[in-house]
Design a protein that fits this description.
The chain has 294 residues and is of the alpha/beta class. The protein has 9 helices and 12 strands. Helix 5 packs antiparallel against helix 7 and helix 7 crosses helix 8. It comes from Blautia acetigignens.
């Protein structure tokens, strides 16, 4: 059965037709998220309609930024990156437009579902998937199933408090939190304090042999480890899957494991640290099998 899949992010909407874990006709369209939720939905409908001219699909799977109620297929909450997206009834909009079943899931959760079925989580029953990028996203699998929580918002691991001395929730709900220190954004900001010309991760790792640069990266990795120690001691997973483009740098996963293992209790050290395998296709592959367990 063919499934039309979309992965809606703040920068781009990735799209494809999926069947049996294989993606065909992969495209990428700028989201223009600043134009708001209505624009994003209109663009998503245009993309799907363009596929419908050439493909016969039986359902639609959508991975999207924002907190998602998968039972209703709607956005519970989305930040300012997509204005007016909170409350958007994605399932209702798309089912009315295309008359096929529509399934919706948060993007990090969808990526974790993809990894669980097709990637690094294939043989794992209890694992945590984290992505490090603009922020830090998380998803928790327990007994082979995604854990949604009581209000479908479980896995906000970027909101772990790691620096309470900087906590000012009345000003910024993420103040003092994990993603402020462990995200790729945080790493690049640190690097730019040292050298303003280092404006992205690629430029940074081109200079990883420099002592000062390596120190910046190692301090950032320590921030990643601070959060992982709490996550591991709380959930006791068999595996931690690390995603995000920055994890393609071999130095990082190796150093994370080196710093992490001495920092956790011996009884927790049986876990494995894996790099996500599916890259930027993880969300689409996860979206392709949404609803299979219904």
């Amino acid at each position: 059965m063919k499934t039309m899949v979309l992965d809606i992010g703040g920068t781009a909407i990735k799209s494809a037709v999926a069947e049996n874990g294989v993606l065909s006709d992969i495209r990428e369209t700028p989201t223009q998220a600043s134009l708001g939720g209505e624009h994003v939905m209109a663009l998503a409908k245009e993309i799907i309609a363009s596929y419908k001219e050439h493909w016969d699909f039986a359902r639609i799977g959508i991975s999207t930024a924002g907190q998602v109620n998968p039972e209703k297929g709607s956005i519970i909450y989305a930040n300012h990156n997509i204005p007016g997206y909170t409350g958007t009834p994605i399932r209702a909009i798309m089912e009315e437009a295309f008359h096929v079943p529509v399934y919706v899931e948060n993007d990090v959760s969808a990526a974790a579902i993809g990894e669980a079925h097709f990637g690094a989580g294939r043989r794992e029953r209890d694992f945590v998937c984290l992505t490090y990028g603009t922020g830090v996203g998380g998803a928790v699998f327990t007994d082979g199933k995604l854990y949604h929580g009581s209000s479908f918002s479980a896995g906000e691991l970027g909101a772990l408090i790691v620096h309470p001395e900087f906590r000012r929730p009345e000003e910024d709900m993420y103040s003092g939190c994990y993603e402020k220190y462990a995200s790729t954004t945080a790493l690049v900001a640190r690097a730019m304090e040292y050298d303003p010309s280092i404006t992205n991760g690629k430029l940074l790792f081109a200079r990883i042999e420099e002592k000062e640069i390596q120190l910046i990266v190692d301090q950032w990795i320590q921030e990643i480890v601070y959060g992982l120690v709490s996550i591991i001691h709380l959930l006791n997973p068999s595996c931690i899957i690390l995603g995000g483009g920055i994890m393609e740098q071999p130095y990082i996963p190796a150093q994370i494991e080196k710093q992490l293992m001495p920092a956790i209790m011996p009884s927790f050290r049986g876990l494995t640290i894996k790099k996500a395998e599916l890259g930027n296709q993880a969300g689409m592959l996860g979206a392709s099998i949404l609803g299979d367990e219904d």
